[in-house]
Specification:
Distance between the termini of chain A: 14 Å
CATH topology of chain A: ABC transporter involved in vitamin B12 uptake, BtuC
Largest sheet of chain A: none
Oligomer: heterodimer
Order of helices and strands of chain A: HHHHHHHHHHHHHHHHH
Low-confidence stretches of chain A: none
Radius of gyration of chain A: 21 Å
Shape of chain A: globular
Distance between the termini of chain B: 31 Å
Radius of gyration of chain B: 25 Å
Low-confidence stretches of chain B: 246-254
Helix content of chain B: 25-40%
CATH class of chain A: Mainly Alpha
Mean pLDDT of chain B: 85
Number of strands of chain B: 20
């Protein structure tokens, strides 16, 4: 093993090391947290964050950034809490119309079917793919486009659910509250997410092309691949994982809110970077990203165990992020000076 | 001579990039079973020709494959389907992928279950054939490999075959990062490939390589083919002569007084990789010659940095200013006015209190507009309202208007019309007579004739040191192309 790959392996292990350090610290502070119930409580919110992180990672792979993922997850949660349960009839403004008598009390099947929700969610993924294509086609900065989109998603969410409310479909709620034997559900979910994303991006043959487009887009183009299709595919994947994040989130909270996931934008970026990914160059690690998301979630629990007031927790999370990234920079520097 | 229809034939092909005419009517035919050597100085059009064959862009003129003109536009996909492969000069591997994954990127057929194993076997088998004992593993991340190995992977990849054949492989400077042993392995493989009926176009500035490996040599100059003969009929000297200009106008000669070279030098610098020392005195114009990208720009940047803080192996007295060659990225502030662009380096002298003194900056800009003839009605116009040549003049004004005693010029005359060039040459000469020192990197022979002393760079070191009397185009070319032993 030469020096470069040694440093790379160390860098790849860093997310796992930070996670283990955090778990040990939690055990030291509160031994009872390391239990079936404890993990369920500490980690269930890690599932939507991990999915959002994977979504963000898809975009970062092709050297772009998605600043709209937070509001998009919120949008999906709002759709999930309304149209996916009761179709168009579940929308608050339709209920208002019914109350005022403009619409009959009993609506036809077409307005009650949850298929409307499925269609809207599929539409969201199509929009994501179109954004990727647009960003490549017009050579636009993704930060600007997705920043704009974040307001669009937020606006749509508020239109759907002006005030927090609605109800998550029963099947999602049941799934998110599964109690499998021995291993807590969030851990199983995290492993499944990591494996699927790993196979999709790291093991399939088209995944190599997708990652290559981040490393050397010109080479991919010269080899005869369409970069437009690559970008659209990566953004569509981001939209898909973002949708899963929104659905799992609404399954946990049981009701929707337009502002429910605003923090996810920055959390997802932090998760990708914490997990060993880099902003440019197509260097990503799906397994690391899931661990990064878990680390960020657990950091919140640990700070609670340390009796740090919630006012300080976000700042303290940032401090943890800086420590891990500083460690990575040190590894990089050691590698360069060799 | 090979017979039968050529794999690809170009007739009267022309290509322009804006005002630059990269190819001005080129004929080329690549037959099975031959290795074509393609040589020429920088900007002769070799890379353009190669991109054309690869299908990266189209051009005017006729093109036929196996005697048939392609029905649709000739694209990367057409080139690939017809077995035309390219190894580009700047590496086109994805550094974040493994060796096997990079092979996959090139071959659509490598998909489905077990693709990783098949891709790895394909590339490693080819590496074994081309570079025995290469020491590269299919699972290595390309970014972790040293540059020579990366180049080996890229070369081997171009020869791998899955669904489309490899019939014509174009190698652009394939040995630039390979040592002599690896280069000879590659050339031996090229001969084997040609013997089996393939065709190779070899672009190299190592003339020994060309003469050893090629059957036929094509010499390009200024976008044209100027000579095409069997390799056996060329010698090193005749090849160099064919590349150079046949008739060259003498630049107005400057009187060289022996006194110039006396006294303590203003600049002493040595390239990191050793070689001769660069020395420049007060009032001298020193040329940095050689092929593009042989370390001349790095040398200028290092000298520029050394004028501000101590650097090992370099001494600079009297400060330095840089005139960038790549105007758009390193030179102009595109949103600023002409006056702001000229005065930016001199702002310390143009203040009143902590604020910029408008009157002083305007006076300086006006002064320079008159002195070097920037053609604009008002120095407050945006810099982009000027033509390229006048923008460059503004950059010269920026450097000359500073207090720096040394002016570093990084091939500043790229894309500047001949009239402006003459004006700038005159200005450089008169400034040198006032005692300024100029370091001038240029790839144009005519510009070197304005220099008092020329250093030729090759492989990031100075390999020749020519005084004004010794300077001839042939000597510069010889030094630039000398084979690495």
């Amino acid at each position: 093993m030469n020096g470069a790959s040694l440093a790379r392996n160390l860098r790849m292990l860093l997310p796992a090391i930070s996670l283990v350090v955090l778990l040990v610290a939690i055990y030291a502070l509160q031994p009872r947290a390391i239990s079936y119930v404890g993990f369920n409580l500490m980690l269930n919110l890690a599932i939507p964050i991990a999915l959002a992180t994977i979504a963000q990672m898809c975009v970062i792979t092709v050297n772009d950034l998605d600043l709209s993922i937070g509001t998009y997850v919120g949008f999906v949660a709002c759709v999930g809490a309304t149209m996916l349960t009761g179709g168009v009839a579940a929308l608050p403004f339709v209920k208002d119309l019914q109350a005022s008598g403009a619409l009959p009390a009993v609506l036809p099947w077409i307005m009650q079917t949850p298929l409307a929700g499925v269609l809207v969610l599929a539409f969201g993924i199509v929009i994501y793919a179109a954004l990727g294509a647009l960003i490549h086609w017009r050579n636009l900065p993704s930060i600007v486009v997705t920043l704009g989109m974040s307001f669009v998603w937020l606006g749509l969410s508020v239109l759907i659910l002006p005030v927090p409310g609605g109800q998550a479909p029963a099947w999602i709620r049941q799934m998110m509250t599964l109690k499998p034997a021995f291993i807590p559900f969030p851990i199983i979910a995290a492993i499944v997410i990591a494996v699927i994303a790993h196979v999709l991006l790291m093991r399939t043959s088209y995944g190599a092309v997708l990652r290559g487009a981040g490393g050397n887009p010109r080479a991919i183009e010269r080899a005869g691949w369409s970069l437009l299709r690559v970008k659209a595919a990566m953004f569509a994947l981001a939209g898909f994982f973002g949708m899963l994040a929104g659905l799992s989130l609404v399954g946990l909270t049981t009701s929707g809110d337009a502002n429910i996931a605003l923090r996810y934008t920055l959390l997802s970026i932090a998760g990708v970077i914490l997990g060993g990914g880099e902003f440019v160059g197509g260097r990503i690690s799906p397994v690391g990203a899931v661990m990064g998301a878990a680390t960020l979630t657990l950091a919140g629990s640990m700070l609670s165990f340390m009796r740090i007031s919630p006012d300080w927790q976000i700042g303290a999370q940032g401090a943890i992020l800086i420590v891990v990234l500083a460690a990575r920079t040190l590894i990089d520097r050691a590698e360069r000076s060799r | 001579m090979p017979v039968g229809e050529p794999i690809i034939r170009l007739e009267e092909v022309r290509k322009s990039f804006g005002a630059v005419r990269a190819l001005q009517g080129v004929d080329l035919a690549c037959h099975e079973g031959e290795c074509i050597g393609l040589v020429g100085h920088n900007g002769a059009g070799k890379s353009t020709l190669m991109n054309l064959l690869a299908g990266v862009f189209g051009a005017e003129g006729r093109m036929s494959i196996d005697g048939i003109e392609p029905a649709g536009p000739y694209t990367i996909a057409t080139a690939k389907a017809n077995g035309i492969r390219c190894v580009f000069q700047e590496l086109s591997l994805c550094p974040n992928l493994t060796v096997a994954e990079n092979a996959r990127v090139m071959h659509r057929a490598l998909s489905g279950f077990g693709w990783r194993r098949r891709a790895g076997r394909l590339i490693v088998e080819k590496l074994d054939q081309v570079f025995p004992d290469h020491g590269i593993d299919a699972g290595d991340i390309v970014g972790d490999l040293p540059i020579a190995r990366r180049q080996m992977v890229e070369i081997a990849r171009a020869f791998t075959v899955t669904d489309a054949p490899a019939r014509l492989v174009i190698l652009d400077e394939p040995t630039s990062s390979l040592d002599a042993h690896l280069a000879s392995q590659l050339l031996a493989y090229v001969r084997r490939f040609v013997a089996e009926g393939g065709c190779v176009v070899l672009i190299s500035h190592l003339l020994g390589e060309i003469l050893a490996a090629a059957d036929r040599v094509i010499v390009m100059k200024d976008g044209r083919v100027v000579a095409e003969r069997p390799a056996a009929e060329f010698t090193r000297t005749s090849l160099v002569a064919a590349m150079g200009s046949v008739a060259h106008e003498e630049a107005k000669s400057r009187d060289v007084s022996a006194a110039r070279r006396e006294g303590s030098p203003r600049i002493r610098a040595r390239a990191r990789s050793g070689g001769n020392e660069l020395i420049a005195h007060r009032g001298e114009i020193v040329g940095l010659a050689g092929l593009g990208g042989q370390g001349q720009s790095e040398m200028l940047i290092r000298i520029f940095d050394a004028a501000r803080r101590h650097a090992q192996g370099i001494t600079v007295e009297g400060g330095s200013a840089l005139v960038a060659g790549d105007r758009q990225t390193d030179g102009v502030f595109p949103l600023w006015s002409i006056a702001e662009n000229i005065t930016i380096t001199s702002l310390k002298r143009l203040r009143s209190g902590i604020l910029i003194d408008r009157e002083k900056t305007d006076a300086m800009a006006e002064d320079w507009r008159a002195r070097i003839g920037i053609r604009t009605p008002d120095v407050h116009n945006p810099i982009l309202s000027l033509s390229g040549g006048n923008q460059q003049k503004a950059l010269f004004a920026r450097a000359l208007g500073s207090t720096a005693e040394t002016v570093l010029m990084d091939d500043p005359m790229r894309g500047v019309d001949i009239g402006t060039k003459q004006e700038v040459y005159g200005m450089i000469r008169s400034e040198a007579e006032r005692g300024r020192t100029f370091l001038w990197y240029t790839t144009e022979m005519d510009e070197l004739k304005h220099c008092d002393h020329v250093y030729v760079f090759r492989d990031h070191r100075i390999v020749a040191d020519l005084s004004r009397g010794e300077l001839t185009e042939e000597r510069v070319l010889h030094a630039s192309f000398e084979d690495v032993a």
